[in-house]
Write a structure and sequence with these properties.
By secondary structure, this protein is mostly beta strands. 13% of the residues lie in helices and 57% in strands. Strands 1, 2, 3, 4, 5, 6, 7, 8, 9, 10, 11, 13 and 14 form a 13-stranded mixed β-sheet that branches. A two-stranded antiparallel ribbon has the order 12-15. Strand 5 and strand 6 form a beta hairpin. It is globular and about 70 Å long. The relative contact order is 0.11.
Length: 256
C-alpha cells in the first residue's frame, strides 16, 4: 500500500471451503465450511514519512469509514462452520508504536442465522505473545496461553455484537468474562473480567512494563478477588477507561 506504506505478506499451506452447488450455478457463492491449516500473516508499516502524515491519514480514514455492522456476503444463509489451526498473525507499526503477535493454535466454531440475529459458538485456544497498543509503554498478556468457549450474538439491525459471560483461562488464571461491541458509529466496546482467586504475581506478568513497574514494590501472598472493567472506542488516540478493584481479607502483603 503506497499510501500507508504498509507491506503485507500472506502464506497459507492449506485452505478448504465447502460451497453449495446450487449457489455456484446461480453465481451467488456462499460458504458452508471454511478450514485453514497452517498460515502466517504479517503486516508492517515501513516509511520515511513524518509522524504527522500518519496522524492525518488515520483521521481521514475515520471520517470516511463505513458505519454500522455489515456481515460478509459469503456467509451461508443457514450456517457456516469454520476451523483455523496453526495460524500466526504479526502486525508491526514502528511509526505509531504498535506491535501485535498472536498465534492461533485452534479456533473452531459455527455461525447460525436466526432471522435478524446471528448466533455463534467458538472453541478458542491461542497464545498472545504481544498486545502492544503503545510499544513505548510495553505490551499486554506477554506470551500467555488463552482458552475459552464464548458464545456470540450478532444483531445486524442494531449493529451490536454481544458475548455473554463465559469462562476465560489466561495461563492458570480463570476469569468470568463478557464483552459488548457497538458498531453503529465508531466501534465502541466494553469488557469485563472477574476472578475470585487471583494470583497477584501472575496479573503483574500480564501487564505492560509501565503498569507492572508501579506494582513492583508489592508482594501479595494469598489470592485476591479481582474485578476489571474496560471501555473505549476502536479509534486512533482513544484512551480506554480501565476500572480495577482488587480486594482480600486476612492476606499477607510485603512492601519493599
Amino acid at each position: 500500500d503506497t499510501i500507508s506504506d504498509q507491506k503485507t505478506s500472506i502464506y497459507i499451506k492449506q485452505a478448504n471451503v465447502t460451497i453449495g452447488p446450487s449457489n455456484l450455478l446461480a453465481r451467488d457463492v456462499t460458504l458452508k465450511e471454511i478450514r485453514i491449516d497452517k498460515a502466517e500473516i504479517q503486516s508492517e508499516v515501513v516509511s520515511n514519512r513524518p509522524y504527522e502524515y500518519f496522524v492525518q491519514l488515520k483521521s481521514r480514514k475515520r471520517r470516511t469509514a463505513n458505519k454500522g455492522l455489515v456481515l460478509p456476503s459469503w456467509l451461508h444463509a443457514k450456517r457456516t462452520h469454520f476451523s483455523l489451526r496453526d495460524i500466526k498473525f504479526i502486525v508491526k507499526d514502528s511509526i505509531l508504536n504498535r506491535y501485535f503477535n498472536i498465534e492461533v493454535h485452534q479456533i473452531k466454531g459455527i455461525l447460525k442465522n436466526n432471522n435478524l440475529q446471528l448466533n455463534g459458538a467458538l472453541n478458542l485456544d491461542i497464545t498472545i505473545n504481544d498486545l502492544g497498543f503503545n510499544t513505548k509503554k510495553g505490551s499486554y498478556i506477554n506470551g500467555a496461553r488463552v482458552r475459552g468457549n464464548p458464545k456470540l450474538q450478532i444483531n445486524e439491525n442494531r449493529d451490536l455484537i454481544n458475548i455473554p459471560e463465559f469462562m476465560l483461562s489466561i495461563d492458570d488464571e480463570v476469569f468470568r468474562a463478557k464483552a459488548n461491541f457497538n458498531l453503529s458509529d465508531i466501534t465502541s466496546y466494553t469488557f469485563s473480567l472477574q476472578n475470585e482467586n487471583t494470583n497477584f504475581k501472575a496479573i503483574k506478568g500480564f501487564l505492560p512494563d509501565s503498569l507492572s513497574a508501579k506494582l513492583s514494590a508489592y508482594s501479595i501472598h494469598k489470592p485476591l478477588k479481582t474485578t476489571l472493567n474496560m471501555s473505549g472506542k476502536f479509534q486512533f488516540r482513544d484512551k480506554p477507561k480501565l476500572y480495577a478493584v482488587f480486594s482480600a481479607t486476612d492476606n499477607d502483603v510485603d512492601i519493599k
